[in-house]
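Student: Hello, beginner here. Can you help me understand the protein record under this note? Any guidance would be welcome.
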Amino acid sequence: MNTHRTSPLATWPVVLALGLAGTPALAGDRPGVQAVLDRVRGNWPEASLRLEASGVSQGSVIEGSELTFSYQAAQAGSAALIDVNSHGEMLLLPGGASGSTGKVGPFQVADPLGTETVYVVFSNGPVAQLFNGAPKDATVGDTAAAAEKLVGRINALAGKQKVAIAKVQYSVVAKPGGTEYTTRGIVRKIVDADDEPVAKGGDAHSLPAHIQFALNSAELTPQGKRDLDVFGEALLDKALADRPIELKGYTDNTGQQQYNCNLSLRRAQSAQQYLVKSFGVDPKRLAVAGFGEADPIASNATEATRNANRRVEFEFGKSGETSRSIVTPCSKQ
């Protein structure tokens, strides 16, 4: 069994045939990779191409589960699949033996979490030129420019052969308890909070997040990246897409105060850089600040409680609000 680069899936047969142009960019489309691929034009409507993902449930698939892609057409041909994960990373996969039907998988779904799209390119001739001389299962890139080059190869193929396009889309989600929040939970919590009084007379809503970092480091752990994947999808949701966010870094009380201030700021910056690079979040939306050991949410008496204080808080402003400068105890030093 192969390992899929993304995370969990479930059974969700979704069908899109030709004419994908104009499909809006989706959450997690970094930075417009799916929007570029959606411009591909097919010239073979008679193929009646369908693509299904077995293992998707209610539009999502769980990390660690198995996923199989199946395509069906009214005529025989050959196929290649393009997998685009939430970070915009594209993987080109061979579509199996020639014929009117085919399966690819099963795959064990892995990180990253978030929106994933799989396209099938189906032709009445060989599709080897899509791989551009690279080995099968070829990594294509993670930029809109790389997607444009791939689209160019698909269009060149369509200039010589008949081509049909279909796609499926789903959300890769963590196992229950695998992340601190879910994307839907974050969106719901912040939107619902608009109707509630804001703590301490402020005008923003805070959401503490235990984003994990390596010890005495601003390097994100694998779990820290998974939790930020959840936030990355939430920040691109249309309900939150026009809100500014303040990323506030914190440490426990071990170490010198100035060291903790610097470390907490670097951790907030690491979270910011990950969200910008992996999800295309506008950096102008993300203000960063380090608070050092200030405002602990747990006792610093034990390692377990100190661990809770090593965190990044997300503070969401109101819709349409511009980002604000942040005054912290560290900035006063």
